[in-house]
Design a protein that fits this description.
Blueprint (H helix, E strand, L loop, with lengths): L2 E6 L6 H13 L5 E3 L7 E4 L3 E4 L1 H9 L3 E5 L4 H12 L3 E5 L11 H19 L2 E4 L2 H8 L5 E3 L19 E5 L10 H4 L7 E5 L10 E3 L4 H10 L2 E4 L8 H8 L4 E4 L14 E4 L4 H11 L6 H7 L2 H13 L3
Parallel strand pairs: 1-2, 1-5, 5-6, 6-7, 7-8, 9-10, 9-12, 10-11, 12-13, 13-14
Antiparallel strand pairs: 3-4
Helix pairs in contact: 2-3, 3-4
Length: about 325
């Protein structure tokens, strides 16, 4: 009989939700593992504890699973999930999607919550912790004896026709009003120097930028393929799906030194790094990165779906 996996995460779109749904997709036809559909568990939002689950809904959801994969680290809901999964004697996999405390909206509150309340449950309740970059691996190795680092993966959407690259086209992917995304770096570029496309909601402060909201995956793939550069000027990214997607489509990337996909890119052509907050360096590095070639074959091999699936398979099926 196949083991059923329940993915628990915050009830909102974003990187964590995409991660859970991607895991569901790669295991939905598996002979030994049966992921349950990634669905919202009834919750209540709280100004103090971010969110917490309605106990009956959480209890019923966990009762259907053999493996409970908990995602998130600064909310009471994650602690509830640990307690209920342990009470029901489930196998617990934990992924924090961790960000350094100083990158959070409320750094001190996040640090206190984690160290006073959350650390205990990770250490004593989780069977295994998964991470996606070297920084969070080192962090959680001080807390838990079993930590497995597994990078994300990406399978590009086949394009009917591969468009011509636009020599001066720059792409930015992310909510414009999210302060973590660092869009202010792009605002410092001279007007008319580049054709800048922004994918995501929020108010854009430049009339010469082209904004795309609610586009399909196919439309996003076309933008990646057309662009000559993706910029990721973020204050912090634990990985960066956008960088992986762009590189897979052969588009070079300029990212801040705080974007952790760089942990996996040593020796790969197609990216450069600038110092977050240094607008002059950002502009200089755009000029030397835009249109440069990308080692697509190396990227596809390093971030293979098959490799990731096998690593998660071993992790889910092993309790020792």
């Amino acid at each position: 009989m196949s083991k059923k996996i329940l993915y628990i995460r915050e009830n909102m779109p974003g990187g964590t939700d995409n991660y859970c749904k991607a895991l569901y997709n790669i295991f939905q036809n598996d002979a030994e593992l049966q992921p349950l559909p990634v669905e919202d568990i009834s919750d209540i939002h709280s100004r103090l504890f971010h969110y917490y689950y309605k106990p009956k809904a959480l209890r019923e959801a966990i009762s259907r699973a053999d493996i409970v994969h908990i995602n998130g680290y600064t909310a009471m809901g994650s602690i509830q999930a640990f307690i209920e999964a342990k009470r029901q004697n489930k196998y617990i996999v934990y992924t924090a999607h961790w960000h350094p405390f100083d990158s959070l909206k409320h750094p001190m509150l996040g640090k206190l919550f984690f160290n006073i309340l959350f650390r205990h449950f990770i250490r004593h309740y989780a069977d295994v912790v998964t991470t996606i970059n070297g920084e969070d691996t080192r962090f959680f190795q001080h807390i838990h004896p079993r930590v497995k680092q597994i990078p994300h993966w990406f399978e590009p959407i086949p394009l009917k026709e591969r468009p011509q690259k636009k020599a001066n086209m720059i792409l930015f992917v992310g909510r414009a009003d999210n302060p973590v995304k660092g869009i202010e770096h792009i605002y410092h570029l001279p007007e008319g120097q580049y054709e800048v496309h922004c994918v995501g909601r929020g108010t854009i402060a430049r009339k010469d930028f082209i904004q795309h909201i609610g586009i399909t995956d196919e439309e996003l793939a076309m933008l990646y393929a057309e662009a000559s550069l993706l910029v990721i000027p973020s204050k912090y990214e634990a990985f960066s799906y956008a960088a992986l997607e762009a590189l897979t489509y052969g588009t070079p990337v300029l990212m801040s030194e705080r974007v952790r996909i760089a942990d996996y890119l040593n020796g790969v052509r197609g990216y450069q790094i600038f110092q977050y907050g240094d607008y002059d360096e950002f502009a200089r590095k755009i000029a030397t990165t835009i249109g440069t070639p990308v080692d697509r074959d190396t990227i596809i091999q390093r971030f293979s779906l098959e490799k990731a699936k096998e690593q998660y398979r071993v992790l889910y099926l092993s309790k020792n």
